[in-house]
Give the backbone structure.
Amino acid sequence: MNARMIFIAVLGISALYGFALGDWTEPAPVIEVNTQYAERTPFLSSDGLSLYFARGNTSGYYYFRIFEATRQEPFGPFTSVNEVLSSVNQHVFAPWVSPDNLRMYYFAQSENPVLWQLKVSERAADNDPWPQGSDISELNLLGKIYKPGLTGDELTIVFTSYDIAGGQGGYDIWMATRPDMNSPFENVTNLSEINTASNDGNPYISPDGLKLYFHSDRNGPAQLFKATRNSLTEPFGNIEHLSFFDTPAGSSVSPSLSSDGTALYFIRALTGQTTDIYVSYTPYLAALTRIENAITEKLDALDKVNAALEKEWTAYDALQELLESGDYGDLSKGDIVTAMQKVYSAIQHQELSKKTLEKSIEKLEDALAALGWQPPPPPPIPLPVAHWTFDEGSGTTAYDSVSTNDGTVYGATWTTGQINKALSFDGVNDYVCAPDDYSLDLGTHDLSFAFWFKTNESSITQMLTKRSTTTGPSNRVWDGYSAALLADGTVNVHFRHSASSDSGVVVTSTASYNDGNWHHLAGIYTRSANLDLYVDGVPEGAQGDISYAENKNIDLTQPLAIGCRIVHGRSNDLYFNGTIDDVAIYNRALSEREIQQLYKNGAAGL
């Protein structure tokens, strides 16, 4: 069952068990999305995997832009946030995305001259970028209109107006229809049964067109309301103030319901503070989410138990060797035997903890199954823009299996890798040089890179890979990205942009990986947010804020170096002493689940 099917199944199950939409959990901030800046107008995609919203007034960019937060499961946290649409000298707000993810309706606002327009952006495939939208001219002729919302068939549109002819005054909600997707909207109607002399706006209409959510300040501060109708030909009625969502000392605006009706996203604005996105769930979805979170935490605990067991067995084996050696120093044989007994007892207790955790996870998974939930399949392996598998086994060319960025091998020797073949570097003058190419640039997009490495020794800092603009180590002003093995065996990833007054952002692991074993490293550059480091599928080190470079076009000019710092052939280029395998570069920020899948596949030799 895929993620889209799971999300749709929730609606059927909630209907089966009779959960009322009036029952909601306490609204909580969407912390993966909210920043110190202003977030507005949230909209959840039909499959539940993307949250579209507007963000503006950031430190480096005044105008509002549209962002997309994504996740791998409809009930999970959002793991990646990326800008998807902006317009020169214009605000863009209020995205609404079609069920097939191919059309995005939104609102564009110019300040000088003042111009408010509804637009629609269309793309050929759901992984294509969103182009600039075209005007919905038949509606824009009305005047100042914004915040579109549509039914699932896209034949009915609701929107907000400001002080246009035929309205109730101030902000009003309007509706228009069309007979088919190829026809213009017509039958423009002021929803007089909804509107008041106060401000009423930012409507969300349910996919079937029978429910309308909106905000209004008819009672003072803006609050959320709901109206319903029995058919598409009837006016809306049964207006209900959703007081549960009121914001004390503030306002609640821009409601948006998930397509299955189990999650409500909206904006809370506290006096004197920036706006944030909040979400509330029906009890069914809240139960699913909490069970899933519990499983995740227990799986994390199980990983820690397994790691502790490995260390305890290593300690036990070391004591066994000491006992057999007969060289106890100041200790007696009895001391060694007692220590072995205590460690073995700890192992037994740890094994019991492991079995208890495994049984607990099994029962929680049974609970999810009883609720009709099934885990989605693992995500497909993400496609890189460049990929050096190092599987050639001979020669001086490391072929790029995706594009034409073939690397030249200097001195490194072919050997057995984590996945088929690999390259061994001697730490003296071995490296691989991939040519300068735009596909390896940071540009204005996010970037990820991932590879496997195994150390021979680490008494000095050694560079695993680097791409930059620098012309030599003496040039301290450079743009680029890199990964390094440090003298103490820790690893780091580094992001630098010369517009910054500091030396860039570095995230360093807490653990040492100078152990002669294979490890998977991933560096993730989310331009509007953080620099992240993953080792063996697990986040390592603290996040580093790189939002200062969010809107910078970082055009790199040097080749990509693998196994050294800069391709100049000098003795101080931090040559790596070890083995590297399966180097890949992506022009987006990989999600944590994708990184874990890369690690799992590679660990299995796939």
The chain has a mean pLDDT of 85. Residues 467 and 560 are 5 Å apart (CA to CA).
